[in-house]
Amino acid sequence: SDRFNREDFNGFNLMVMGIPNVGKSTIINKLRNTNLRVSGKATTTGAIAGVTRSVLERIKINANPPVYLYDTPGVLEPRIDKGLETIMRCAVCATLSDQLIGYRTIADYILYWLNRHNNHRYVKLLGLDTPSDDITEVLIKGSVYLENIVEHKSLEKGQMVKRPDVEHTAQQFVTAFRKGQLGRVMLDDDLLK
C-alpha cells in the first residue's frame, strides 16, 4: 500500500508547542542555524508573549534526514484552576500579557515572593532604607530614588505638579526581576519540597 511505501519519504514534520514566552521560536532558530550552518532568523522572536500568532510555514532544521519544524503560538489551558498563585507566577514570567495583569500587580507579587524568601536585594535597587511589604511605599520611594517623576497639570491648582511615576518604577522592578538582577530564583520552589 502507498501508506507503507517509503520511496516517497520527504522528511519528518514536527511541531513545537508550549506555553507562551518559553523560547519555542528561539530554539527553532538555533537548531536551524546549528544544523544547516546558516545565520539569521527563520522565525520571529520577541521578549513578550504573543509574537507568534499562528502556525507558520515549516522551517527546515536538518538536511539528512530532512527534518522540518512548525512554530506555534503559545498554548495555555482555557482555565487555570490552580488559583491566583499560579496565575501570578505565569504573569511574573511574562507568560501572560503584562497589560492583562498590570505591572503594579506583578510588582506586588514579586515583592511578596522576595520577602517570603528573605531576598531583600530590592532594597538597594530601589534605594530603600529597609525591606517593606507595602508595594505603594516601595514604588513611591523607588520612583524618587530612580528619579522617575512625571509632571501633569493639576485640575485643582491649574498649574504643573510633579509626582512619582510609580507605573514606570513598577515596570522597571518587574524587568529587573526577570533579568535576574534580584538573584536567580525558581518561583515553583514549593514543588521541590
How far is the first residue's CA from the last residue's CA? 54 Å
| Name of the CATH class of the largest domain | Mainly Alpha
Helix content bin: 25-40%
Q: For the largest beta sheet, what order do the strands appear in spatially?
A: 1-3-2
User: Structural class of the helices, strands and pairings?
Assistant: alpha+beta
Summed up, the helix count is 7
Number of domains: 2
Which regions contain 5 or more consecutive residues with pLDDT less than 50? none
GO biological process, one term: mitochondrial translation
GO molecular function: GTP binding; GTPase activity
Pfam families: MMR_HSR1
Organism: Oppiella nova
What does this structure look like?
It is a single chain. With 193 residues, the chain is an alpha+beta fold. The protein has two domains: 2-71, no CATH class; 84-192, Conserved Hypothetical Protein Ylqf, Chain: A, domain 2. The chain is 35% helix and 12% strand. It has seven helices and five strands; from the N terminus they run E-H-E-E-H-H-H-H-H-E-E-H. It has helices at 24-36, 84-92, 98-101, 103-116, 122-125, 135-145, 166-178, and strands spanning 12-16, 59-62, 67-71, 149-153, 160-164. The protein has a three-stranded mixed β-sheet, with helices on one face. It has a two-stranded antiparallel sheet with strand order 4-5. Strand 4 (149-153) and strand 5 (160-164) form a beta hairpin. Helix 6 (135-145) packs across helix 7 (166-178). 21% of the residues are buried.
